[in-house]
Design a protein that fits this description.
GO biological process, one term: lipid catabolic process
GO molecular function, one term: triacylglycerol lipase activity
CATH class: Alpha Beta
CATH architecture: 3-Layer(aba) Sandwich
Pfam family, one: LIP
Number of strands: 9
Distance between the termini: 16 Å
Number of helices: 18
CATH topology: Rossmann fold
Protein name: Lipase
Strand content: 15-25%
Keywords: Signal
Oligomer: single chain
Radius of gyration: 20 Å
Shape: globular
Length: about 425
């Protein structure tokens, strides 16, 4: 990288919904390790479904015809084709920034046409020559139902978890919702192909919506679910051989799916994600029956999560439940699960451009061991990458406290600086 990584060890403390997001460890660690986050953040997490729904409603924007109306007859229908765009004024964004909402064509895991939504954040000030340097952002788990799209949230879900820092630093953000979030249809949760396509084609659609405003060159960046998506983009771009793609940042990525969905006991894990994984399996494999993997307790709140509830409600619905209470024994042996694990393998295919892989040493949602193991595998397969572990940081705090390192690394890519890998340290 050419610079030392700052050894962040504490999370920012915020209030309300943002504090609850920052206390992601509460989703798992509060169950197994006790209250390890500041009280102000810990108390922000919902304890009941009603509290979860209330928190979500406070940030929710209505699903308007923008998301649901049929495409105009003259709209392009190819992947990346723009269906419609609108300037947005109802987001809680820093003064000076400009926001747009776009709707576009993408592909699902089997390359079927799907309609996907996204938002675009532009920095303050005049557009520079060549357009704003562009970051295609892939968000972490927000839920699986249609209302769970970040573009349908006033704070854009990751607003002050680092996302606003990108435009503040002069970087435009193109942020897909992933299809099925915002738009009608099923969200293929935790599928690297589906999420990768949504990220890639959001860039083409944003260029169509805002000609001359965005740079041709771009970088992919993502956290958690999005950390797998951004790494997948690097694989796809290697095959597409896109000369304008400059590299990938993967933060706390679910790049070792088995370690995410069936972690070792000492890794803690976050069982409330499991019903969402079951939903993603159903979306990817329509003949799959979620009751083959979910226990009665596991299925109890599944219909709510599958239709209208998002992350907070999912957390509250399964608060205090272990994976053994939610998932049936040997559920990872189910053929659909095995197919998903095979399709989501990371670290074997070459990636285009430099790759930055970040993880937190205290992450109990996406265990750092699986991330490091995947990075090591990638290095052995000839994939050059820069890896860094932030000691002690949990899942969302890793995103928050690594943002400036991400931005500096991304700016180096746009500046054409040499990439320094450190595979020899893994």
């Amino acid at each position: 990288m050419g610079r030392m990584m700052r050894p962040f060890v504490t999370a920012k403390v915020r209030s309300g919904v943002s504090a609850a997001r920052a206390a992601l460890a509460g989703g798992a660690a509060a169950l197994a390790l006790g209250a390890i986050h500041p009280a102000s953040a810990q108390t922000a997490l919902p304890k009941t479904i009603e509290e979860g729904l209330k928190l979500e409603a406070e940030q929710a924007l209505p699903i308007t015809p923008f998301y649901t109306d049929a495409a105009p007859a003259d709209a392009p229908s190819w992947p990346g084709g723009l269906i419609r765009a609108e300037k947005v004024t109802d987001y809680a964004i820093p003064a000076g920034m400009t926001a747009w909402r776009i709707l576009y064509h993408s592909l699902d895991a089997e390359r079927h046409d799907v309609v996907t939504s996204a938002f675009v954040l532009l920095p303050a000030g005049p557009v520079p020559a060549g357009g704003w340097p562009t970051v295609a952002w892939a968000h972490g788990t927000s839920g699986v139902a249609q209302p769970c799209a970040p573009s349908l949230m006033k704070d854009l879900y990751y607003g002050d978890e680092g996302l606003f820092d990108f435009p503040k630093a002069g970087l435009a953000v193109v942020a897909t919702d992933y299809h099925g979030e915002g738009t009608p249809g099923a969200h293929q949760y935790m599928n690297k192909l589906a999420q990768g396509y949504d990220v890639i084609y959001s860039v083409a659609a944003a260029h169509a919506a805002l000609p001359g405003v965005l740079s041709k060159q771009w970088v992919a960046d993502g956290h958690s679910q999005g950390g797998m998506a951004s790494w997948s983009v690097g694989e796809m771009e290697q095959q597409m051989n896109n000369p304008d793609y400059l590299g990938t940042v993967s933060v706390s990525g679910t790049v070792d799916m088995l370690d995410f969905i069936a972690p070792k006991p000492e890794e803690v894990g976050a069982p409330f994600y499991f019903p969402m994984v079951a939903y993603g399996l159903k979306a990817r494999y329509p003949d799959f029956d979620v009751k083959t993997v979910l226990t009665k307790q596991g299925y109890e709140h599944y219909p709510l999560i599958a239709t209208k509830a998002c992350w907070f409600t999912g957390y509250a619905a399964y608060l205090g439940k272990s994976s053994a209470q939610i998932m049936k024994p040997n559920w990872t042996k189910v053929p659909a699960v095995q197919a998903m694990l095979k399709e989501d393998i990371m670290g074997e295919k070459p990636v285009k451009g430099p790759l930055m892989v970040l993880t937190g040493g205290g992450d109990v949602s996406v265990p750092p061991g699986g991330v490091k193991k995947t990075a090591h595998k990638a290095c052995k397969n000839g994939i050059k990458l820069f890896f860094h572990l932030y000691p002690g940081l949990d899942h969302d705090p890793t995103m928050i406290n690594s943002t400036q390192d991400q931005i500096a690394w991304i700016k180096d890519r746009f500046a054409g600086k040499p990439f320094e890998e450190n595979c020899n340290t893994l």
